[in-house]
Write a structure and sequence with these properties.
The protein is an alpha/beta fold and 497 residues long. 49% of the residues lie in helices and 15% in strands. It binds ligand ME8 and magnesium ion. Ligand ME8 binds at residues 10-13, 21-22, 24-25, 50, 230-231, 233, 257-258, 260-261, 289-290, 296-298.
Length: 497
């Protein structure tokens, strides 16, 4: 049986509602999953929420509700956003679910029995926003090295995971598996981090300080450190313990994350898996940040744009398109509504939308019939574009895939200018039919190619062409003649803003 392609997003904290950063990673993983399905691969796409820990507890206290209530209320905001954004996830995991807690307990027990977990006194600093421990040498000017915010001093008995002893193994693994951490420069960042000594990881919290977490199976006075709990979602959802057969077909995963959580995913997580006897993830892909001006967009900076507002104003597909086209995964990008409008008008209203509307209007107006001019030429053209679109998606570059589709659309628009169908209508009905057929086939191909990024607009175009129901990216052009008599003309696909 074929292996399933498995894509994940981070599971997001439920201390606050989702913003554009969360929407971006989820759309990216959705686009990659849809693409994977469109080329015939069985695909499993997981997202979810991270519901334990100090951060959630504090948000709940602020709202004067229980952490459970905080999680229950906020998870709805994430799920609603994903529905509105057309996210087609196969599963949604919440870390407060029993199916997850069981896996966390089983892995902890296993590592405890193997001697990879021990109890010791802990003195150090803790960053609540990042939910991470640091030693004095990690700190930058006494602040958290990751987020730059103040840390809290902590001294207590805790349980530790012998992470340090896996350092040399991890360095070799990363060096021998070039596609494991992407992009390449992030791999070097992790290797740089691993050049220093690697401390063991504190994986517990005494309940007297924090009770909102998964109880340690071997000591009921403690709960599990939220990162140790959260990372295991990637194996608990596909059934690591409850359904090893299914798990074996699905695992390993491609993890999409932001660069803010690179260390947890490329150091803690591989070592946890190794110690517990699981295979490594296929890839950890760390993308850059959406910035507003010069600053990272984040809940704590209060400079966030609400994705719901963007969807309400411009529709889900245009928003998905912008997120994918404007950011080269790996690099940072600036989000501004002006830039959004500029890109929308040029790529969607002028290029694609206009092409569809001109061609369909002419087919109807001139009562054209299906008759292709030069099938070989156009077959090759579409084949070449499709190959570069696939190369884009295969290398985690949806922006490059979209650029190739844009090229095809622009060529089709120039073809209209060169052939002047309105003049052909008077000179040669036969040539006119051929030109309009070529254009209809290009539109058909473009609609299939953009479907991972704009699923509903793609469906809309296919339905106007009378070809709804086709979703296979690799459909052969000119295989089945289209029936032009059912073509429908409707309002603009992308009205100019
Ligand atoms: O870190 N630009 O959850 P979180 C791009 N629960 N992406 C951004 C972004 C920005 N400005 N801001 C956030 C956590 N993101 C943990 C994860 S996984 C086992 C546990 C995205 O709610 C990006 O994917 O803080 C980032 O990694 C994630 O949201 C952090 O979400
Ligand atoms: Mg964060």
């Amino acid at each position: 049986m074929d292996k399933v392609r498995y894509f994940t997003t981070p599971i997001y904290y439920v201390n606050d509602i989702p913003h554009i950063g969360h929407a971006y990673t989820t759309v990216l993983a959705d686009v990659m999953s849809r693409y994977s399905r469109s080329i015939g691969r069985e695909t499993f796409f997981l997202t979810g929420t991270d519901e334990h820990g100090q951060k959630i507890k504090r948000a709940a206290e602020k709202a004067r509700i229980s952490p459970r209530e905080q999680a229950d209320r906020t998870v709805v905001r994430f799920k609603d956003l994903w529905t509105k954004l057309g996210i087609a996830n196969d599963d949604f995991i919440r870390t407060t679910e029993d199916r997850h807690k069981e896996v966390v307990a089983a892995v902890l027990n296993d590592l405890y029995e193997k001697g990879d977990i021990y109890k010791a006194e802990y003195d150090g600093s803790y960053c609540v926003p990042c939910e991470r421990f640091f030693t004095a040498k990690d700190l930058e000017e006494n602040m958290c090295p990751d987020c730059g915010r103040p840390v809290e001093e902590i001294s207590e008995s805790n349980y530790f995971f012998r992470m340090g002893r896996y350092r040399d193994w991890l360095v070799s693994y990363i060096e021998e598996h070039p596609g494991f951490i992407l992009p390449e420069f992030r791999k070097n960042e992790t290797l740089g981090f691993l050049r220093q000594e690697l401390n063991d990881l504190c994986i517990s919290r005494p309940k007297q300080r924090l009770d909102w977490g998964i109880e340690l199976p071997f000591d009921k006075d403690y709960v599990t450190y939220v990162w140790f709990d959260a990372l295991l979602n990637y194996i608990s959802a596909p059934g690591a313990i409850s359904d090893p057969g299914r798990f074996g077909r699905i695992w390993p995963a491609v993890h999409f994350i932001g660069k803010d959580i690179l260390t947890t995913h490329t150091v803690y997580w591989p070592i946890m898996l190794k110690a517990a006897g699981y295979d490594m993830p296929e890839t950890v892909f760390a993308h850059g940040w959406w910035l507003t001006g010069d600053a990272k967009m984040s809940k704590s900076s209060g400079n966030v744009i609400n994705p719901m507002d963007m969807i309400d104003k411009y529709g889900p597909d245009a928003f998905r398109y912008f997120l994918m086209a404007e950011m080269t995964p790996g690099q940072d990008a600036v989000f501004s509504e002006e830039r959004f409008i500029e890109k929308y008008n040029s790529d969607l209203a002028n290029d694609l939308g206009n092409l569809v509307s001109r061609v369909l209007t002419m087919i109807i107006k001139y009562k054209a019939v299906y008759a292709c001019s030069d099938p070989e030429y156009f077959k090759n053209l579409i084949g070449e574009v499709r190959a570069s679109v696939e190369a884009g998606f295969d290398s985690y570059r949806p922006d490059a895939a979209l650029e190739s589709i844009r090229r095809l659309v622009r060529e089709a628009n120039s073809y209209i200018e060169e052939e002047k169908p309105w003049a052909l209508a008077k000179e040669s009905k036969e040539r006119l039919a051929k030109v309009l057929t070529d254009l209809a086939e290009i539109i058909y191909a473009a609609a299939l190619m953009i479907s991972p990024v704009m699923p509903s607009k793609s469906e809309e175009i296919l339905s106007r062409l009378g070809t709804a129901g086709d979703t296979a990216l690799r459909r052969e052009p000119w295989k089945d003649p289209m029936d032009f008599s059912v073509i429908e003309k409707k309002e603009a696909l992308f009205p100019r803003i």
